[in-house]
Structure formats: C-alpha cells, structure tokens
From TrEMBL:
Residues 1-29 form the signal peptide. One of its GO terms (molecular function) is transmembrane transporter activity. This is ABC transporter substrate-binding protein. Coiled coil: none annotated. GO terms for cellular component: ATP-binding cassette (ABC) transporter complex. PROSITE patterns: PROKAR_LIPOPROTEIN. SUPFAM superfamilies: Periplasmic binding protein-like II. Residues 51-313 form the ABC-type glycine betaine transport system substrate-binding domain. Keywords: Signal.
Length: 318
C-alpha cells in the first residue's frame, strides 16, 4: 500500500493550531523567547558554541519529546538549553536552518508532507530517505522510533467487548461488522482517501453512517466515549485512549501513512555522542510507551521534564 502525504497530515496536531502558532510567531518576532531572554531566534543568531538547543512545537507531546531528547543529551555530558512551544513547522524549520535550534522532535511523514505535499509514503524508511533528499543541506534526520502519533480508527470499550476486538485486531476485522457501526471524524474524513474512501477501497469497510465531528478533538472523543459513534478517527497517542479504554485498530496496509517520531538535527550543532544518544532514545521509544508518557503529562498533570527523566532512567538511558 502506498500512501500520499497530502491528505490528513495538514490537519493533525503536528502542525499546531493556527491561532496558537500565530501568537507564538508574534512573540518570537517581538523578541520573547521561551527561556525569557530578549534574543530574536528568527534573526538567525546561532546557539553558543558547544551548546545544543532543543526546540519543541506548541503542543504537549512535542514538549515531552524535547525534554526526553534534552535530558538524554545531558546524560552524555552535553550542554543543553531549551526553546519550548515555538509554534508552527514554518517557524521551527526556519530556526533549524539558521542554527538557532539544534534538535527538534519531528514526525517523518508530516515533515515530508511539508517539504513535498505530493510525495508517496511506501514505508518509514522510504519516507526518511525522501525527507533527507528534500531537507536543507545543513539538516538531517536521525533514526526514527517505532512510536507514531497519527490518525487511526479506534473503537470504544463497549464495541470492543461486543465484537471481541483487541489491540491485536486490525481494520480488516471490521469488514463484517462495519455495517452495524456509526463512525465519526472531521467532515473531511468522509471524503478523503485517508478516511472513508480509503477504508472502503483498501479494507472493504462500509459503515452504517458517518457523523461529522472534529479532527480527533473533544467532540470526537466525547462521541466515542458515550457511544454516539462506535468507531472514530483518534490519534494513536491521544491520552483519551487510556482514560476511556478505547481500542486502536492496527493498520497493516498503512492507509494512514507514517508519523514516526524522529529527531531533526542541525548537522554542525550535534557531536557524534549526541547523535548516538538520540538514536538510543529512538530505539527504545514505541507507540505504547509514548501513549503512557502522554497520559502521565496530560491526564495526571505531571511535569513533562519529570516524566522524561523517569522514563530515561527506566530505559537505562539516564
């Protein structure tokens, strides 16, 4: 199965909300960096020699991942500073190019969609090769982790119990029961290939009906939780999955493309021991782990830095 990067990626949280991104960009232009200094990172000022600047986009998971990267680098003796909640990819990519930010947690398929909206996504490895070919020459991707934050079809606990669906079940397992289920998602989900069209053409799924809600947000979460819909488009690391005991169905044909958590780095700013440290993080971070860490931050309200350190310790990386 070949996916094209142009459909659902434009609406995921990986791009950041437009209003928040605009606010962040205005703050940056006004000289208000996340560490409280008056430096303007958009002016092209590079990080101090020997200092690795780890950035994050303006959503909770990105901040958590940045803390994981930064603390892993510190454990190797590197000097690290943070620039959290920068904003949209348009802003962060510029900061990466000019050296204001050294390391940024990215999502390989989403980054490819930004760099080449028409690119095909045949495998995670192929996506990374395509990204590297399109990146500014000063930048590169390190190893991708198995952890993915992407669209999925998830069912609620009641539906999972009724039809004996588990975390090992796939979208193909819905073929016989889809006519009994109402599915929910953003209005665009009804007409996109990475939506109802693809679910029908790839997996042969035809649902009882579709309910227009939002893009994996509170309306969709609530409708799935109260059984207004029995299946819905939910992001794979959404903490609501843990809270409401939703079951995420596997997508073996990769209809929803790839969104592997992957470090984007400025080549000149990260020594080899830093590269090795981040690759070690990627090797140990999977989707189930990231979902659990997100739940700790977003549901249990733990400090993301504390969560990052605790996981690194448990993984033998700190």
């Amino acid at each position: 199965m070949t996916s094209t990067a142009k459909s659902s990626w434009s609406r995921t949280r990986h791009t950041g909300a437009a209003a928040v991104a605009l606010t962040a960009a205005v703050a940056l232009l006004a000289g208000c960096s996340s560490d409280g200094t008056s430096d303007d990172p958009l002016a092209g000022e590079k990080a101090d020699a020997g200092t690795v600047v780890v950035g994050s986009n303006n959503f909770a998971e990105s901040t958590l991942l940045a803390d994981i990267y930064g603390e892993a680098l510190k454990a190797k003796g590197l000097k690290v500073t943070y620039k959290h909640n920068i904003g949209s990819r348009e802003t962060t990519y510029g900061l990466m190019k000019n050296g204001s930010v050294t390391v940024l947690p990215e999502y390989n398929g989403s980054l490819l969609a930004y760099l080449d909206s028409g690119a095909e996504q045949k495998s995670a490895e192929a996506v990374n090769e395509a990204v590297r070919a399109k990146l500014d020459e000063k930048l590169t991707l390190l190893d991708s982790s198995p952890a993915e934050d992407k669209d999925s079809v998830s069912v609620n606990a009641e539906t999972a119990e009724k039809y004996k669906l588990t975390s090992s079940s796939t979208l193909a397992d819905l073929k016989e029961i889809a006519p009994d289920l109402v599915i929910g998602g953003s209005p665009e989900f009804q007409t996109r290939q990475q939506g109802l069209k693809g679910l029908k053409s790839v997996y042969g799924l035809e649902f009882k009906s579709f309910k227009a809600l939002d893009a994996g947000g509170p309306l969709t979460q609530a409708a799935l939780a109260d059984n207004t819909v029995q299946a819905a488009d939910i992001f794979t690391t959404d903490p609501t999955i843990v809270k409401e005991k939703f079951v995420v169905l596997k997508d073996p044909e990769n209809l929803f493309g790839f969104a592997n958590v992957t470090p984007l780095v400025h080549k000149d700013g990260l020594p080899q021991k830093g590269v090795d440290a981040l690759n070690e993080v990627s090797a140990k971070l999977d989707t189930k782990t990231l979902l659990d860490l997100d739940a700790q931050v977003q549901l249990e309200k733990k400090d993301p830095l504390d969560v990052a350190k605790e996981w690194l310790k448990s993984a033998g990386l700190l």
